[in-house]
Amino acid sequence: MPIPPLANGRPEVELQVPSPILRFSSAELGSGELWVKDDGQLNPLYSGNKARNLGRCLSAARAAGTRRILTAGGAGSHHVLATTLFARRCGLATTAVLTPQPWTHHAEQTLACALAWGLEPIPVATTAEVPLTALEHRQRGDVLVPIGGWGTLGSLAHAEAVEGLSGQIQQGSLPVPDCIVVALGSGGTASGILAGLACSRPGASVRGISVFARHAWLARAFVVPLAAREARRIGQQVGWRELDSRLLVTSAEVSAGYGRPTPSTATAQVIAARQGLTLDTTHTAKAFAAALRILDCSELTPSPAERPASRRANVGRAPVPIRVLYSHTLSRGSLEPLLAEAPGSTELPSAVRSLFHRA
Ligand SMILES: Cc1ncc(COP(=O)(O)O)c(C=O)c1O
Hints:
By secondary structure, the chain is of the alpha/beta class. The protein has helices at 49-63, 78-89, 105-116, 130-137, 152-170, 188-200, 216-234, 240-245, 265-273, 284-294, 309-312, 336-340, 350-358, and strands at 21-24, 33-38, 68-74, 93-99, 120-123, 143-144, 179-184, 205-210, 247-250, 323-328.
């Protein structure tokens, strides 16, 4: 798939919004309802939460006359790939500080694709090295985009998506969910959803499923202040306390290293695949597993003793139906067409290949 250059006057990232809403039906979900907000098909080139992030960042970068985006992420980062593809379309180069991540076919393909479309990689051994390395490589006129695309410019798009969701609720495409479940890496996506909910008030709470920060308080610290800033940008004053009360973060799905599976990711992938949803081990399988656990899916919670205390207390009584909206943040398209038509070599140089072995 060749990447068409940006036509005059077109937005940097054209999004087909609102995202489709799917109802996930499975006898395993008991009396609960699982709905899916599918951000996987927002753009024919590449989709997912990271594509949604990029529109404002790229338009600010072009307005500033920059030539290069300098950013960071894991070796198989979706953010780095999305930035490389959409920046290239706008005539901008991308350089990224890359950190180790366990090998998966998907992670390797993601990196190969970014390299083939012109990413300049700067491999480092640990996440702690990212800020200084980025500063060392910064050139005059670069636009710095934080790791994972975290920041107000990107996250506002997720707040706007909640407006779209409110419209879909009004039109009857889905009922008001009790909670929106989303993978929480840098926290930018969750903060946008939180700000959007607090401003448009459809009543749901946000469940951020931390994939990196071991301590829920640390993950919250990346989400709540950013959500407050986004709410101000939308023109509303929402206090930290209100935002905090609408956010529940769990670190139960944090694995023994960034990108590694947890005991529930494989089952989540199998259940999702039955209805055509492909999940990645790093983010979406963890969020989907958490959504199933909230619904008390018996495939994931085999013994009553493992059930959360709140659910155990319910045994013997009629189950409380709960409506969960899982936010699917992974691009759905295959990377094969992008790799087939890539201008560069798809062979990974040894310095970046070793990022997958050092994790
Ligand atoms: C597919 C996918 N889902 C969710 C996330 C988490 O998003 P955020 O970094 O905005 O918290 C990421 C981050 O890399 C991702 O690639």
